[in-house]
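Cross-check.
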Amino acid sequence: MTPLFEDEHLLVLEKPSGLLSVPGRGPDKQDCLSARVQARYPEALVVHRLDQDTSGLLLMARGIEAQRRLSRLFETRQVHKRYLAVVSGQPLQTQAQVQADAQGWRCIDGPILLDWERRPIHIIHPDGKPSRSRWRALQSTEAATLLELEPVTGRTHQLRVHLQSIGHPMLGDSLYAPAEIRALSPRLMLHAQELAFPHPFTEAPMAFSSPMAWTASPPGCAPPQSRTAPPSPCP
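Predicted model, tokenized:
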């Protein structure tokens, strides 16, 4: 697993869809991004995760102190993450009553709780943890919409649960989309495309981008293509 960026303190990687971030239960779930990285960088430690079916940028620490400092950046919301997703329908129409800011961003607020009887599925529930996601539409057709997404909080499956909760599940989502929406894509249409944070030791601004050439055109967005350009700092 070759990093997109490395220095003595951290690694920036790109996880493909279908690969676990960390080992799961059972011998058939030991292949994962962290194991592949640690085969080359034994000191590498997990800081955050992406869902198995989500692709995109992921950060790992090199050593305990780097892990502690990076984890603190996540806890204090100093890590900026932006995702690309394709969802069913037209949220601009169904959410027209939700006020947008000057840049077109709207919020979804909904407390998220693990449904123990159906785990790993999560649900919106009053007893859940407070959760907020921001979204704005980039492109829309009658059947689907290409969105930019920003998780303000970091709950498990947050973006998927929030979009499903407003009636717009992601194409290819095996957990939260009905069969006809799931069938529109061979994979979950969710990609972590931007990652920005202050360096945990120097405080220098760090920003990375992993573009994905997706559209909102059904039947759903053609299968994902490779990056159209090499990873580069975000503008």
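The chain is about 15% helix and 30% strand. The chain has one domain: 5-209. Passed to J.P. for a second look.
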